[in-house]
Every structure is written in structure tokens, then in C-alpha cells.
Amino acid sequence: MSTPNPQLLVAAAQQTLGVGKRRGPPQATCLHLAGEVLAVARGLKPALLYDCNGADASKIQSYLEELQRLGFLTLGLHILEIGENSLIVSPEHVCRHLGEVLLGTIAFVDVSGSQSHPSICSLDQLQDLKGLVTEIIVHLQGLQMTLSLAVSRSRLHSTGWNFCTVFGILLGYPVPYTFHLNQGGDNCLALTPLRVFTARISWLLGQPPVLLYSFSVPESLFPALKDILSNWEKDLRTRCRTQNDFADLSISSEIVTLLAVAL
Fold first, then answer.
1. Which candidate, 193, 246, 197, places its Cα nearest to that of 218?
2. CA nearest 161: which of 170, 173, 151?
3. Alpha-carbon distance 263 to 253, whole Å?
4. Which of 21, 160, 203, 224 is 20 to 30 A off residue 120, Cα-Cα?
5. Residues 6+ apart with CB under 8 A from 205
């Protein structure tokens, strides 16, 4: 794909993603959003959680359609509504990712407030969650049978879902957090050293790199999770080599300790 015109990308977002009398997001946000959308289309991340402003799914659909009209996107992406949230996904890529999740390629960290410290658990220990992952796959595979190249959207009924964990899976985190919903929203991460991983990749010349991933794992569990994290990094670097729109993938980590952690 030829280098896109940044001004056209900004205009596409500001003209379609306005809320009320306000125009769409500021210029830097518009360009970063376009980069994230392209990363989803290229399979560098399975999904993007839209959080630039309060634009609803219909406005996001108009935005993606405008990107298509500009020739920025060729394949039709899908907007998946879960609760009050909208995720931009490539059904093909996210189904492949979720299939790998069912095979046990990721681990989970239980941070329930009733525990004194975080602990590792597998998907087999979270049967309800395993059922949700299967449900999402079936939903998206059904869409793939009928979708054309057009942008589309659908809604998943999500009563009783742990959004933190489901979104962690859909966004491609190798180690999502989970916790027991019946114990409220408390977690045991306060004052716990966390290793925060950040993956960025260059895109437009003269613009900041696109943030592909940002997630954390408790530093105390890092040795036990090292293989899973290493496989995640290796897979991401392999996918980056299969495309030509982005370059110079950078993955870094730092250790932070917070008084409270909101999930």
C-alpha cells in the first residue's frame, strides 16, 4: 500500500467520529487510531478497543467506511459491540487467535481480592470463560459466512461477563488478568511490583510510533510466565515480517508499583 495522506486520515476521523457539537478526536489521536486500525487489518493485533471518545458503533462504522473509500482499507473490518464497548476486529484474524487461545497458548493471572497475592491459572480451570471464547468464535464464524468486503457490526449479549478478562483475550494479551466477579471489583495488585510490557511499531514518517500492546504481569510470576511471553514476542515479530506497512518493532518492559490498580 502506498503511504497514506495524513491529512485525509485526520479528516476522515474528525468528520465521522464527532460527538454532539464536538468534532472528532485531535489530530495526533486520529493518526494513531488509523495506525491501530491498519494493524488490526494486517493481523498485528486481533482487535482494537475504541476509546478515543464517546462515538457509538454507527459512527465508528462510518469512519471505517470512509477509510475504505480512501483506499486505506481493502478488507471490510467488523465492529463487535460488547456491553457499552465497541471493538474493531478482523473476523478472520480474531477467530484464528481465539482458536489458539483454546489450545492453551496463553495463561491467566487470578488477581481476586480474596487472595493475598496473584496466582497463575489456565483456561481449563476457567470453564465458564472457555465457553465464552467458544461462543465468540461461533458468532464471528457465522458472520464470516455472510460478510462481504463491506464494514459490518454486530452485538454479543454479555450478561455476567468479566469484561477485563474477555477484552484481555480479544486484545491479544498473552497473560490476561481474571478475578471472581462475585467478590466485587477488588483485586490484590495494590503495591505489587508489575512488569509492564509495551510494544510499539513505526508507521508514518515524522509521527510517533503506533502503540500495539501495553499490558502487565506481576513481577513475582514473571519467571513462571517467561516461556509464554517469549512465544508471544516471537509470534508478533514473525507477523511483523509478513507485512510492509510497519517497521522497527520495539518491545520494552519496566517495573512499576502502584498504590491501586484499576482493571
1. 193
2. 170
3. 19
4. 160
5. 3
